[in-house]
Specification:
About 35% of the residues lie in helices and about 20% in strands. The protein has a domain of about 200 residues: 3-Layer(aba) Sandwich (Rossmann fold), CATH 3.40.50.720. It is of the alpha/beta class. The protein has eleven helices and 13 strands. The longest helix has 20 residues. The chain has a seven-stranded parallel β-sheet, with helices on both faces.
């Protein structure tokens, strides 16, 4: 049985585990021993390794035939030092993974003024967070070309699920932009993102990027109105951008400065992906409104 290593064994990885443990011997890099029993109960062999401690990554070299990399970059800086150190550790052994699937972010495209965005569009990341992701993508592509590793990059937008909804923002009454100034957002259900990662394991092309998004084409206000109506909460007030800039934190404002509509034909044509939740409205309708 092939060996598979998970870097960043969080929510998306856990959703993929029921399938993974049937087809691979699964290992997971963990920072804290507190998760050992939990992961073993799921059929996973935990390995102590910390992306912020390069020496601890040496034990991962030569271990796995396949790697799922779901961990985020560090919180600061312009480069992804975690990816740099991990790839250096993996490169030090003659035995290399054959495949590596990485979940990145659609933020690498930057602001596209609401245009439809395909994967060939050059990246123009505007935030430090997105620039770290773009750095990780570039490092992975060079790693794949140099060593013959099949690298697939999944550019994910806003991830949602029944337990991953921004309902607290609605409860706080935080404002949104009016429709004339609003931005387009993109979404993917956590179950579908896990499914796209599994499809990339089987059919991802070398060095290929994939927009891991659903079929929705919603403005931010439309998305929050759907949430408010589904869960019986007041709709968010609409205010001009100048007023919003005085009321929201820079982190929240950064999400209101980029508008794009991601095209997802590539995940369907190349990966054969059939989305369980093709759009946000249908997914929300199926959720328990009391949660």
């Amino acid at each position: 049985m092939q060996r598979l290593l998970i870097i960043g064994c969080g929510d998306i990885a856990r959703r993929a585990l029921p399938w993974l443990v049937k087809h691979y011997r699964v290992y997971a890099a963990i920072r804290s021993p507190a998760r050992i029993d939990e992961l073993r109960a799921l059929g996973v062999t935990p390995l102590g390794a910390d992306l912020d401690r390069p020496r601890s990554l040496r034990r991962l070299a030569g271990l796995a035939n396949v790697i799922l990399h779901f961990a985020p970059p560090p919180a600061g800086g312009e480069i992804d030092t975690r990816m740099r150190d991990l790839l250096a550790a993996l490169s030090c052994k003659k035995i290399l993974p054959r495949r590596l699937v990485y979940i990145s972010t659609s933020g690498v495209y930057g602001d596209c003024a609401g245009e439809r965005v395909v994967e060939e569009r050059p990246g123009r990341p505007q935030t430090a967070r997105a620039r770290r992701r773009a750095d990780a993508e570039a490092r992975l592509r060079r790693f794949g070309r140099r060593l013959g590793v099949n690298v697939s990059i999944l550019r994910a937008p806003g991830i949602y699920a029944a337990d991953r909804l921004p309902l607290e923002r609605l409860r706080q009454g935080l404002p949104l932009l009016p429709d004339s100034e609003d931005i387009y957002t993109n979404h993917i259900h956590a179950d579908d993102l896990a499914g796209i990662a599994l499809a990339a394991l089987r059919r991802g092309r070398p060095g290929r990027a994939y927009n891991a998004t659903d079929d929705s084409a919603l403005k931010m206000g439309e998305y929050f109105d759907l949430l408010a109506d589904r869960f019986g909460l007041p709709r968010a007030p609409r205010l001009p951008r100048e007023e919003i800039e005085r009321r929201l934190s820079p982190a929240m404002l950064s999400f209101m400065g980029e508008s794009r509509r991601l095209a997802n034909r590539r995940i369907k044509r190349e990966l054969g992906m059939r989305l369980r939740h093709p759009d946000v409205a249908a997914a929300l309708a199926a959720m328990d409104g009391g949660n």
